[in-house]
Amino acid sequence: LGDGLTRIYERQIKHYNALVELDFVLNKNRQEIATNLFIIGQTRANITRSQEAKSIIENPQSMKNISARHDLLLKIYGEDLINKVFSYFVSIDALNEDLQTTEKFYRTVIERTLINNDIKLYLANIPELEKQFEVLNKFLANLMDRTNNVLARIRVGLSRKPLLTKLIFFAMRGYLKVDENEIARESKKIEAE
Question: Whole-angstrom Cα distance, residue 59 to residue 50?
């Protein structure tokens, strides 16, 4: 009986720790999605200005891959949660391919335009670039919604700590409580050093 309870507790801890990691990953993903949306917006604005100026106005920022930690799937339990996280990560894998393909196409068009010294090449590819950026924009906006949904599920799971963990958190709450006066005194000591 003791070994069985120990295994159950260890599995709960493994699941809980994976949820903590997933919470971190998904918060990071929210930032990466927002960054990519910003970069796409800036690039599209530069493309519009390039059309008007009939010259290349390049965005030096590159779109970033979004994290998909498939290894964490083996640490969580609950069929519904596993399926949601798996589907979410598969979507990210597909999106990362599209991000890199579009980024490479954008950089190749600019490079070839500069090598050939022919702005018409760049201008001729603008409709395709616009179409790709529009698709990415929609996909990223949808992924932000999915990220928030999966993150909400994870946070609900995090609110359900294993029993021993609850006891440890209860015992440590006084220890972890921060007194602002104590912080101010310590800050003065640091400044005086």
Answer: 11
**Tokens read off for 30:** 């929210």
Q: pLDDT tens, 118-128?
A: 899 889 999 99
Q: Enter the tokens of residue 185.
A: 């005194």
Which conformational region is residue 55 in: left (phi greater than 0), alpha (psi within -120 to 50 degrees), or beta? beta
**What is the pTM for the complete model shown?**
0.78
Q: pLDDT tens digits for 129-160?
A: 999 999 999 999 999 999 999 998 888 888 77
CA atoms within 13 A on the CB side of 84: 19
Block residue for tokens 């971190």: 24
Q: Which residues, 6+ apart, have CB-to-CB distance to 47 below 8 Å?
A: 57, 126, 129, 130, 133
Q: Is residue 104 classed exposed, middle or buried when 0-12, 13-18 and 19+ CB atoms within 10 A define those classes?
A: exposed
- Report helix, strand or coil for 139: helix
Alpha carbon separation from 48 to 95, 129, 131 (Å, rounded): 24, 11, 13
Token readout for 148 is 């928030």
Cα(5)–Cα(116) distance, rounded to whole angstroms? Answer: 71
